[in-house]
Structure formats: structure tokens, C-alpha cells
Amino acid sequence: MLEVRDIHTYYGDSYILQGVSLRVEAGQVVALLGRNGAGKTTTINSIVGLVPPRRGEIVFKGETITRAPPHHIARLGMGLVPQGRRLFPNLTVEENITLAARTGNGSARWTLDAVYALFPRLKERAHNRASQLSGGEQQMVAIARALMTNPDLLLLDEPSEGLAPLLVREIGRVLADLKAQGLSFLLVEQNLHMATAVADWVYVMNKGQIVFEGTPQELLGNEEIKHRYLGV
Amino acid sequence: METLIIQLLNGLVFSMLLFTMAAGLSLIFGQMDVINLAHGSFYLLGGYIGLTMVRRLGSFWLALVVAPLVVGALGLALEYFFLRRLYGRHRHLDQVLFTFGLALIAADLIRWNWGAYVESVPPPELLSGQIPVFTVQFPVYRLSLIAVGVTLALGLGLLLERTRIGAIIRAGVADAEMVSALGIDIHKVFAGVFALGVALAALAGVLGAPVLNLYPGLDFEILILTLVVVVVGGLGTLRGAFFGSLLIGMADTFGKAFLPEFALFLIFAVMAVVLLLRPSGLFGLEGT
Ligand SMILES: Nc1ncnc2c1ncn2[C@@H]1O[C@H](COP(=O)(O)OP(=O)(O)OP(=O)(O)O)[C@@H](O)[C@H]1O
Ligand SMILES: [Mg+2]
User: How far is the CA of B103 from the centre of ligand 2 (A)?
Assistant: First the structure.
């Protein structure tokens, strides 16, 4: 589904990603973990084309997308739930959700009714401005907005960030649901528990490099990696 | 009393012309983060193209349609070949230099083609003459400009608030990068907004010609007032453009009528007061 091969990404002169490789197979949930500033968001931004890598290659569904424009990459079937949600604050919930709605490449599944069924709370808030929502509701809108593009691969950047434990569990449930429905995704997290609960494969990143990969069980059993790179 | 009513009406007329300009300038800024210093040039170019069409073909109505289309197409070409290369967070200086250079070139080309005279354009036959308003006689054409301005404000408001393309434009004002990451070609949106904005400027040029005449230098006069309107109203908001236009249009008209030596001063005084009370303008988002 997605293969990232040895990418090197810069912000101006700062050399951030120093040879990152990872892959996500169809139907798989892959987690990317790491501390603040490890380069997780930069990896996501490189994949979706917002900060193209200078070297290396990214292949999505057989097509090289390394320096393709973001809208082209999204249209191939990549859905982004960015860090900090990045909702459009002056638009209503429903406008946010339907803004980029499209039927995708496979059999179109996600409709407004379907995402409202997934997040009943959003239906009540449909005509509120996004800026009036709570953090948890904003995260739901961000996920709903991405689902409405009917992606084949969902990229989620710290969906649990800043949420109360109860909401984190709710988001976790939704992710498990999506996985059960066969959606593939790359999940960036700092919440080890939430990520290992849903992931099939885990990468740990530090200072712009992948320092560990394995199954969630392997990571959970590896005290040294957890201690050194995740601060647990 | 009678002069007061007349000046009030004149103020409304001028405000609506300013609004037609400011709406485009503000949309372009809000969407693309580009301050279009050639906006007055598109006004004047639209006016002169209208003048030529009225002279050659004798139809003001045709001018009203064709001039915005021609100038809008020119805007598309300029966006595609030049402006597109200058997008980005740290390129404001490049953009300002480009649009200002464009304004200087346009001024010379206009003078070269149409000469340096003051040209007047008669209003269309259908709207000539005067009708009574309250206790005064007022030109029908000018009254209809007020109606056009209000209609335009409502139309643009509906476009922005009630359509999907409007939602995309508003989303782009907030976070253009995120819009593109959702699969929407934001550069196409930019191009469309730029073309629409400059077409509105050209429309204002044709509409305004029977009232303000056409002459070299009008481009910069209009540009400065429009910039003041957009700053006073709040960058990037349609409502701000509308109420900012009313405020500045009135201040300019009343200043010129009653305190001619201080007219320009009055405008900048109004701007200073508004900015002191609300640093981001009447309807601007605080903290931006
Ligand atoms: N726009 C930018 N310009 C310059 N440097 C940046 C920029 N964005 C991030 N960085 C730097 O790149 C490095 C990686 O940042 P990144 O945002 O990818 O980390 P992260 O793993 O997502 O962290 P977090 O968990 O805090 O979101 C950091 O050192 C950060 O300071
Ligand atoms: Mg991050």
C-alpha cells in the first residue's frame, strides 16, 4: 500500500529526516512512535507532499509520489488527520466534513450519514462552527473529514493528543472499528497503550531515524527501547 | 438639508464603487495572502476598455460584460505565468514588488494607448436623467449603482456562505495547505479567486467611469482608498469590505464636500481611530 524508502527531509537548512524507511501493507495498521521532536510529523508531511523529501522515494499503491503535489497524493486515496486537527474554524462542522467529500477509488462507503453514525455527537453539532467544539469533538471532525474523502490509507497524527482519558478510549474504539472494517492506517502516537492496542506493526523513531521496528508485543517486551526512546 | 441628502447619496454611490474594488482586493488577500498593488490598475484598465467599447460599439451594457471578462482573463494569465511562482510564506516582498511593478507598467501602457486626457463616459440611455428622492433630484444612474453594490454584496455573500466553492474559499483563507492536503487543487482556487477579484475591479472601473471619469493617476487614487477600506474593515472579510467601504466612502465624500482641504486627512484620521480601537479592523480576526 505505502512504501517509504530512505527519505531525507529538510526544513530549510535543518536536516530533519535522516533516512527513514517504513511500509504499510493493505489492511494493516502501523504505528509510528517517538518523543516530541523525533520527526513523526515531518514523516507524515513528507508522505502527503506538504514537505517533500529531498532524497529517497515514496511509493503509494504502485505510484511514485515523492514530489507530487499534496492534492494529487490525496486524490490517489490518502486521508490526513493532521496533528492539532487543523479544522477550518470559521466553517460549520458539516461544512468541514463535506468540504472535500468524494467517492474515492474503491466502492464508495463513507457518506455523511455513515460518519454521523460513527460520531453521533457531530450530528447534533452539525451547524456549529468548528471553533465552538471541544477538543474531542474537533478530533472527531478531523477524522470524519478525512473519512469523507474515502481514502485507502488514513494517516493519523497524534489523534489522542490533549484529550481526556475517556475520550482517548473513545477514539481508540473508533480506530479499532475502522480497522475491523478493513481500512489501512498509519498511526502516529505518543500514547503507547493506545497505539499498541490497535497496531499490527510498530516503528519507533528518534532524531529523524527509525530506531526500532517490530510487533507491538516485541516493543512492549523491550524495556531498553521503551526507556531510551519513549521515556517509559 | 438638500446638500446633506445629496452628499449622503453621493457617499453611498462612492461607497458601493469602493466595495466592488475592496471585495476583490480583500478576497485575494484573504485567500492567497497576496496584497495586489495592481488592483487600481485593473480598475482603470477595465474603465478604459469600457470607454473604447462604448465609443466603438455604442453599448454600455456590452462594456459592462466584456471589460470584466477581458480583464479577468488577463488576471488568469498573470496568475498562471507570474504570480504562481511567488506563493509562499516568506515571499511578501517579491509579491509586492511584482504587483507594484505591474501597476507601473500598466499605468504607462494605459497612457500610451488612451492618452493622458480626462475622458468622460455617458451613462447608458436607459439610466440617464434624474428622479426625485425625498426632496432632491438625483441621477438615475447613480442610484442604480447603489442597487448594484448592494446586490453584489448579497450575491458574493451567498456565494461564500452557501455554496461549496464558497466553503472551499473560506477554508483556504483559514488554512490553504490543509485544503490541498484534502485533495483540492488550491492553486486552481487561487487562480479563480484572483480572476474574480480583478474582474470585479474592472467592473468597478466601467461602473465608475460615468461618475468619476477616467484619467491617468486614478488607478493609484482608487488603490489607496481601497487599501484603506480593507485595512479599516479587516483583511480578508467580505463584511469588513462592505462596512469599511461605507465608512471610507462617506468620509471621503463628506470631507470633499465640506472640508475640501482636509478630505484626505479625514480619511486617514478615520483609519487611525478605527485601528486604535480595533487593531485588526472592524471585522478582522483578532490576533492576526
Ligand atoms: N516548520 C519547521 N521549521 C523548522 N523546523 C521544524 C519545523 N517543524 C518541525 N521542525 C523541527 O523538526 C524536528 C521534528 O519535528 P516533528 O514535528 O516532525 O516532530 P514530532 O515527532 O512530530 O514531534 P511531536 O510529537 O512534538 O509532534 C523538530 O526538531 C522540530 O523542531
Ligand atoms: Mg508531531
Answer: 43
Residue A104: closest C-alpha in chain B:
B183
Domains of chain A: 2-77+152-230 (3.40.50.300), 87-151 (no CATH)
- How far apart are the CA of B165 and the nearest CA of chain A, in angstroms? 9
| pTM as predicted | 0.89
CA distance B155 to A62: 45
CB-closest option in B170, B175, B183 to A74: B183
CB contact under 8 A, A95 and B177: no
Q: Which domains does chain B have, with CATH numbers?
A: 2-277 (1.10.3470)
- Is B164's CB within 8 Å of A99's CB? yes
Measured from the Cβ of residue A70, the count of other Cβ atoms closer than 10 Å reads 26
SS3 B282: coil
C-alpha cell, B157:
455573500
- A224: CB partners within 8 A, 6+ apart: none
Cell of B143: 442610484
B181 with A91: Cβ contact below 8 A: no
At A110-156, the pLDDT tens digits run 999 999 999 999 999 999 999 999 999 999 999 999 999 999 999 99
Interval between CA A11 and ligand 1 midpoint (Å): 9
β-strands A153-157, A78-81 pairing = parallel
Residue B219 near residue B234 (C-beta atoms within 8 A):
no
